[in-house]
Amino acid sequence: MNDPADCAALHIRVPSAGGASSHILKESLMATETHVEELEHIEELDAIIAAGQGTAGALIPVLQKTQQLYGYLPQTALRRIAETLKIPFSEVAGVVTFYSYFTTVPRGEHTARVCLGTACYVRGGKEVLRGLEEKLAISPGDTTEDRHFSLEIGRCFGACGLAPVVMVDDVVHQRVNPNYINELLVQYAVRDDADETEEPS
Amino acid sequence: MHNITIDGMELQVPSGTSVLDAARRAGVHIPTLCNLEGYPAQGACRVCVVEAEGARNLVASCATPVREGMVISTNSKRVRAARKTVTQLLLSEHDADCQYCERAEDCELKELAHTFGVRELPFSGEKPPSKLDVTTPALFRDPARCIKCRRCITACNDIQAVGALFPQYRGYQTQMAPAFASDMAEVACVQCGQCAAVCPTAAITEMSHIERVLGALDDPEKHVVVQTAPAIRAALGECFGMEPGTLVTGEMTTALRKLGFDAVFDTNFTADLTIVEEGTELLMRLKAVLQEGKEAKLPQFTSCSPGWIKFAEHFFPEYLDHISSCKSPQQMFGALAKTYYADKMGLDPKNVVVVSIMPCTAKKFEAQRPEMSDSGLTDVDYVLTTRELGLLIKMFGFDLTKLDSGEMDAPLGISSGAADIFANTGGVMEAALRTVYEIVTGRVLPMENLHVKEIAGLKGVKEASIVLENVVPDWSFLEGVEVRVAVAHGLGNATRLMERIRSGEAQYHFVEIMTCPGGCIGGGGQPRFTDNSIRERRIAAIYAEDEGKQLRTSHTNPAVQQLYEEFLGAPLGEKSHHLLHTHYEARGR
Question: For a Cys-Cys bond, which of B164, B265, B286, B326 suits B189, CB 3.0-4.6 Å?
Answer without folding.
Answer: B164
